[in-house]
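Give me the fold.
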Amino acid sequence: MEYVAAYEGYIGYRNQILAAIATAVGHEVRLVAADNADNWVSDAVSHASNAARWRWWVLGLPVFYGLTFFPLHVAEKPLQTRRYWFGGLAAIAIFSLFGFIHLTPAVAIQQFAQGFPFPLFVAIVALADGFNPCAFTVLVILLSLLTYTRKRRDMAIVGSTFIATSAMMYFLFILLMIAVGSVLLEQYGRVFLTVLGLGVAIAGLINLKDYFWLKQGVSLSLSATQQRTVSQKAGQIVRQLRASSHDRLQWLAALGGTIALAVLVNLIELGCTAILPVVYMTVLFNYCQATMANLPSVCYAGWTGFYALIYMIPLALILVSFIYSFASTRLTETQGRRLKLVSGLFMVFFGSLMLLQPQLLMLG
């Protein structure tokens, strides 16, 4: 099928034209004789009406599931049983959302994607990425040890240095990933997108597994050995700060150690952080090709800088909380599991979009 300017339309085989129309309207298209045209229009309207009705019923499934919380006395059940119930709620929410999308005409999906503000998408993904169990664990370890210095100023400076260095490393890493990924997307297109979608979805399922069975089997978390390494280096930074009252070079050494720790952490925690940026990279490539095809590098760098700034917000909130309370604490297992659940849901959702509804990624 091809577009012919002389006819101001497309020409091609009948099955090609019908397939293109069916894709656009979101349901099967049948050609009928003139005397049956009225019946066909009536059937089409009825089909669209039924789809719209079922679409909203499907979206209400999580609500009906949630209503079982009190009749089943979930709050009184053992902890693992409660996790299963909340995991079921999360699964039904994902499936119902995709059911809603499946019953929505393709034209409406494309219009929604094209009208969705790209900056809002970047902010949502970056903020979700910022709620990262690995980054939280490392920052909390460092700040907890810094409470022993009894100096809020040192905590603020060292914590800010760690967060800023992490954001800069993340910025450079994502730009490198975009440089490689944009070439592969341009050359292999749908195949590469399918591979990325599978990777994101599998990583999401691993995080969801960690919500139920933390660190059992394959896990995208810092190992015990890595946590000990981080704790040792953070302890060295604290000792240098405590000695800085007699030797100012120790204070500079502590800042240098903080930067080195941030670089190390961002290298060893790529398994935690490299997933959602893949989704961002895919959408960014389409957006920059459509809006700034002549200066794609500027587009990539500008939006990735914005991404890195949003990514710092959750970490900065943790720093502010420590400076205010000035109390040593740890990321609890329950908090870690919840972070895994939320990040896993994001990954499964976006991975499924890349596999099943890639047109939703054509934002702006």
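The first helix runs from residue 14 to 25.
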